[in-house]
Design goal:
Length: 413
Amino acid sequence: MEKNHQHSVEYWKKLVVVLCFGWVAIWIYRTVLTPIYPEIQASLGGISDAEIGAIASFYYLAYCCMQIPCGILVDKLGQKVMLAGGFSLFIIGTLLLASAHSLSLIYVGSLLAGAGCASFFCSAYSLSSQNVPETSRAMANAIINSGSAIGMGIGLIGSTVLVKNMNMNWQHVMFMIVAILVVMVAVFLLAIRSHQSQSLKAEEKTDQAAAGKVPLSVMFTPKLCSAYFLYFCTCYGYYLIVTWLPSFLQTERGFEGMAIGFASALVAFAGIPGALFFSRLSDKFSNKKVKILLYLEGAAALLLLLTVMAPNTWVLMTSLIFYGLLGKLAVDPILISYVSEQASPKSLGRTFSLLNFFGMSSAVIAPTLTGFISDVMGSKEMSFIMSGALVAVGACIFAVITHRSKAREVATA
């Protein structure tokens, strides 16, 4: 019994590491192009900001649209099959993008890559839910999430060094990412178990049958709808930073060379301690989740505004660091925990699919809309101001609805 217990503990720890590296690979791809938008524009004949921003939008469009279908397939086929199959499609999309010499083919590659990545979120967090002990789950999810920050930093700094400092062709960088993805497919196949006990399968089938009887309204209560909208607003600001901050720093703040990638990566690296600290805080003060969320969202809104209003580089860098510390990566574990408490146990998986769907839909809108605003106004400052205002609006709506719901619960008690 002791050996079996030890083996089980080792397996969930190994899972956390593997899934963390999965996010690393995905986020290297997501951010590797953003510091070198000017080079990509030049190689394609000087395309507009809106057209270059649409590369990210096509990726997130496919990623967003495939969320719920992938969640259903994970239940039917298993996480290992979906991770390996999804990353294989991811590889095909990245290869197409790396070899493309027209904007239309780049868009197709981005669509395929986004569709391939869509299987990761539901596979990763269903694996952690099944295998990580409940007492360690929030911290484990924070560690898994930290892979996105590590990958973001590597992508931003790596492409800056390789393309801007070493004059490497940007498409050669994409072939390097293909190699990373091939390794990840091998890791998924070797490290993740492909079978479950028959009792667990029977239990899951029973849960799925019960879940089918849950009315749709249960997943769209006022509290959950306000959480969905808050996550949309939170992600909008974050993906604006991810896709356009390097270009903004270069074209409107005079950053050059490696400084562009390093400054942008500060947001990612600062997010790691923020995610770990606030995940612990969420577990320790479970009755204070709403207040903590509102404090974090208020700070994030102000810091997004400060990014464009900073009078000097020192203030700008400080605002970016604190946005990373208090922004999306810090909010994620607390909001996920809050939603799990509000959702019906019979529809938990679908509720999380909806949460991620609404959050990622902002990533479809933000890159292209920001590029369009930049083309029209000649600056991206208004986009950052809009994102800060959107976060503030989302926080206010969330605060009002949760306060009214709590007051109604007290009155009926």
